[in-house]
Amino acid sequence: MEPVRVGFVGLGAMGGPMAANLLRKGFVVRGYDLSAEARARHVAAGGEEARDPAEAAAGAALLLIVVATAEQARAVLDAARPALAPAATVVLHATVPPAFARALGAALAAAGHPFLDAPISGGRLKAEAGELTIMASGGEAAFAAAGPALEAMAAKIYRLGAEPGIASTVKTINQHLAGVHIAAACEAMALGVRAGADAATLYEVIANSAGSSWMFENRVPHILARDFTPLSAVEIFVKDLGIVLDLGRALRFPLPLAAAAHQQFLAAAAAGLGREDDSAVVKVYERLAGIEVRGRGEG
Hints:
Elements lengths: L4 E5 L5 H10 L3 E5 L3 H9 L3 E2 L3 H5 L4 E4 L4 H11 L8 E4 L5 H13 L4 E3 L2 E2 L1 H7 L2 E7 L1 H14 E6 L6 H29 L4 H9 L6 H12 L8 H18 L4 H18 L8 H8 L10
Parallel strand pairs: 1-2, 1-4, 2-3, 4-5, 5-6, 8-9
Antiparallel strand pairs: 6-8, 7-8
Helix pairs in contact: 1-6, 8-10, 8-11, 8-12, 8-13, 9-10, 11-12
């Protein structure tokens, strides 16, 4: 049986490992990214290099898009759509407003292309392990075409309905919680250190107590190590919590916790930390309080 040919746009921290997992499972993957270094890593992993989104899409049964914003997704599709094979399926893995996913699905359906609204969660480590969580909604044709590729990249695939936009709604709720939890973890750790607690001990106790969360356990070690290499950047949550607040505004639904967390990410971005790991929100508190949240032996 001839291997499935996949076009892949977005070979960054998440997309690169996802494409590598497809390659390991026998897919032929032609990938494009703005970064020449990312394209080179893809080729080194056994993939084919595309010079632009159209070349990635040409001849592919599937086009997978892993970008950061709706605007980037629109630009990719504007470039790739003329090269799409008839009935090729498009899968969007970006976190976008639900209304954008619905409109995109309608436009692609009118052109004869099945579409899967399929945002992802799990971070770079889960992407590398092929253990992502994928929230997906779309028609049966899209699920049938994309299913084997999704299984190559994910540990959990949630089929959330037949209409694009449902999956993006679920991802929006996930990002509400994730953003609030990160901001709360940073605030709490900074308060503890300002009050005189040892940061490493505080982390250990809370990680084994009721106040912990997945984000607390995942992000606070970055802070203690003073390693703000972006696994997920501050700017991502400026965008994602913005989507949360836009949804609440459209529904006339109050979101005071999301709004407060959004302000902290905005403060971090305004302080020049937008491209650092999202745990760099702690630096906003550190600068205000004249402290540093640091583990033992760091620095």
